[in-house]
Design a protein that fits this description.
Structural class: alpha/beta
Strand order of the largest sheet: 19-18-21-20-22-23-24
Low-confidence stretches: 496-502, 713-717
Helix content: 25-40%
Strand content: 15-25%
Distance between the termini: 30 Å
Number of strands: 30
Shape: flat
Radius of gyration: 31 Å
Mean pLDDT: 92
């Protein structure tokens, strides 16, 4: 809870700034906020004339920094309004007059309140601490290398505000230049806790006062003795954020249960005519074996595909859990009113023609109806959804009924069909495939909440272009990740970001930069592409959870070993340093011209017994936590022989209670494809013709294990 005493002066100041029609605080006003929140700043005074400037500078008794104070001049350096290291009365007078003249030239209409006289802080590492209001995630705190090059280097990391001590400290290790803060080339490291405290206090400030849009402490001078903000910039929002309707966890679970496990489904716009969406949806539900009641709705037909048709959903006897819409967009709103009168809790809106095609009013209308009548809306502009464990195939696309543990969602219909094709080709069993489309109502946090509790779902993979409520998504992800992995493919990496930002932090907070850090903060595994998202989703339920960081590569080809080593490093994994006794044990099984160490190179001409012996040793030794196998196709050890012996040994150890993740890269002729499939079906994640994929999925498993707190937890850099 915020300290009420510190809120009072800040509230009074912000109200006064608002009353004056301003959105930017002056430096002295910024100091009021800093003092209230314990943000360390140097001593300073506001000189309204040159004599006051001289007197204040003499009082500090050391070199000073002099800065223009004007509500209309945000970028003081650009205006020639900053002079550093001023000493002595004559220099203070000269600097004062120069700053005032430069300000008048820069903006003749600017109101000048005076010149800030500030103690010159000692030299140190310049960093930036700031906060912005992200349209997706709300208040976000930022940290990175600061000074004049901050927007060039862009070495910045973000977290949701407010942050606690541990999250603030994690930010210091999450920038590319983290080593500089620890000290390099004989230079002392910075006081990490002092820097983290500046981050934490800024995050509390913006969380306590939502009207603060941006905060910049740039630069913060960090030394071994502390951290002091040499400049503070605060910008207020022009208008209050729009409140989004929220639902309790129980409300979400209640409606989602009836959506994903329905007993009765109505198809509005059902048709006897092949080629119509209403015909395809109804046929898929019937042919898919849905065991509940299916009710066609069409005022122009009495019977559709052998089922009694009703002129309206209000004519259907008994309760209905889901109404699937297969009618043109203009017809949705009046029919949705009927759904509300029938007390149907879920509407699946397949039709397009809403906000995505320049008709936002139509979409606003159905959202208002849904909120008023208590109907949750899936869509519009979607392909429908599959809930395989309950034989629900409510879509106009091809059916899919292979039950499994992967839940897949997509914002795009095209991506949804790629998901479907991948699942079929790889025989990936799914618990659900859900289209989200325009996300007029139901979105990723609703689905995450449901899939997190769904006993049939072991892994969740989501394609998204945006998030309507980033904080709700993070909350749902944090509740889900300790139980099962969440993989996200976020499209739109090249978003331009905040072009008209009023601060350095705002200019740095492009959409993707914030998404990347905060998704990781939530424990989500971000996939770089569509294929990676699908492969992670397929592999993560197969791989056991690692019990430690030591990864060992066993390979029949030196070249593959080098590439696999690169992949291990690229994916943030650790190659185990093989102790002498283990090294000697491996050498007992490999030829003299092979190589122990890590990778363990058994060479390509070895018989199956060498592969088996070294794999057994890797599984037996408790110091090894994961195995990466590199196979090279030879007649001595054919691909299927390698696959069979590997699967047999892994299964034997699992029966003994020894479960370690094992992934394999198979190089060779086309027979390696069958061998990979054989291995995958038996719990060894294997890929032909690539050294990158198997290690990438292993890295994803490790990232989830850390985020879930199974390997130390914490924010992954």
């Amino acid at each position: 809870m915020p300290d009420e005493e510190r809120l009072i002066p800040v509230r009074a100041l912000l109200d006064a700034v608002r009353a004056g029609g301003r959105t930017a605080l002056t430096a002295p006003e910024g100091k009021v906020l800093a003092d209230a929140y314990g943000i360390a700043v140097p001593g300073e005074e506001l000189a309204r004339d040159v004599d006051e400037a001289v007197a204040f500078a003499e009082r500090f008794g050391r070199p000073v920094v002099m800065k223009i104070v004007s509500p209309g001049i945000l970028h003081k350096t650009d205006a020639g309004g900053v002079v550093v290291g001023v000493r002595g009365a004559a220099d203070v007078r000269a600097a004062f007059h120069s700053i005032i003249e430069n300000a008048h030239v820069y903006d003749p209409k600017a109101r000048i309140e005076g010149v800030q006289i500030q103690e010159l802080v000692p030299e140190g590492q310049e960093v930036i601490v700031g906060a912005v209001t992200d349209p997706t995630f709300g208040k976000v705190v930022a940290f990175g290398l600061g000074g004049v090059l901050v927007e060039v280097l862009k070495d910045v990391t973000f977290r949701l505000a407010p942050v606690d001590d541990a999250e603030a400290l994690s930010m210091l290790d999450s920038i590319r230049s983290a080593a500089i803060l620890r000290g390099v080339r004989g230079r002392a490291g910075v006081d990490r806790r002092a820097v983290a405290e500046q981050i934490r206090r800024v995050s509390e400030l913006v969380a306590d006062f939502p009207e603060i849009a941006e905060v910049d402490l740039n630069p913060v001078i960090a030394t071994a003795e502390g951290a002091v903000a040499a400049d503070i910039r605060v910008i207020l929002a022009e208008q209050a954020p729009t409140e989004r309707r929220t639902h309790t966890r129980q409300e979400i679970l209640t409606s989602m249960r009836r959506l994903m496990r329905p007993s009765s489904i109505a198809v509005i716009g059902a048709s006897n005519e092949p080629g119509k969406i209403g015909n395809s949806v109804l046929r898929n539900l019937i042919d898919g074996g849905f065991p509940g009641e299916i009710h066609p709705v069409n005022p122009k037909a009495d019977d559709i595909l052998g089922r009694k048709a009703y002129p309206s959903v209000t004519d259907i006897p008994g309760e209905v859990d889901v109404a699937v819409f297969a009618v043109p967009a203009p017809s949705v709103a009046p029919l949705l009113e009927e759904v509300g009168r029938k007390n149907i809790p879920n509407a699946v809106l397949i039709p397009s023609g809403f906000a995505e095609s320049g008709e936002p009013e139509l979409q606003d209308e159905i959202v208002a109806i849904g909120e008023r009548l208590g109907i949750r809306l899936l869509g519009p502009n979607i392909y429908g959804y599959y809930s395989t464990w309950h034989n629900v195939c409510a879509t106009f696309c091809t059916p899919y009924d292979v039950k499994g543990g992967v839940a897949l969602t997509s914002q795009s219909g095209g991506i949804g069909m790629a998901v479907l094709g991948f699942a079929r080709t790889t025989k990936t069993g799914v618990s659900a495939i859900v289209g989200l489309g325009n996300k007029a109502d139901l979105d990723e946090d609703d689905l995450l909440t449901w899939f997190g509790e769904d006993p049939h779902t072991q892994c969740i993979a989501m394609h998204l272009e945006d998030l309507k409520d980033g904080r709700a998504f993070v909350e749902a992800a944090r509740a889900t990740v300790p139980k099962k992995p969440v993989v996200v493919l976020k499209a739109g990496r090249t978003a331009a970001g905040a072009k008209a930002a009023g601060s350095h932090t705002g200019a740095l907070a492009g959409d993707d930069a914030v998404y990347d850090d905060i998704l990781r903060q939530a424990g989500v595994i971000r996939a770089p592409g569509l294929n990676e998202m699908l492969e992670y989703a397929r592999a993560l339920p197969v791989l056991p959870t690692p019990q430690g960081d030591n990864v060992v590569i066993i390979t029949g080809a030196g070249g593959s070993g080098v590439l696999l080593s690169d992949a291990v490093t690229d994916n943030g994994l650790a190659l185990m340093k093989i102790p002498p006794d283990l090294d000697a044990s491996f050498r007992e099984f490999i030829p003299p011209f092979g190589a122990a160490g890590n990778p363990v190179d058994i060479t390509g001409g070895e018989p199956p017994s060498t592969y088996e012996a070294t794999i057994r040793l890797g599984l037996e030794d408790p110091r090894i936590h994961a195995l990466v196998l590199g196979y090279w196709h030879t007649i001595v050890t054919p691909p299927l022989v390698f696959a069979e012996l590997t699967a047999r040994v892994v299964a034997e150890f699992r029966e003994r209670g020894i479960e370690k993740p094992v992934v394999a890269s198979l190089a060779g002729d086309v027979e390696v494809e069958e061998a990979c499939q054989y291995l995958y079906e038996r719990g060894v994640v294997a890929y032909p013709y690539t050294t990158e994929k198997p290690v990438a999925v292993l890295g994803a498993k490790y990232r989830w294990a850390r985020a879930a707190g199974l390997l130390g937890g914490g924010f992954m850099t």
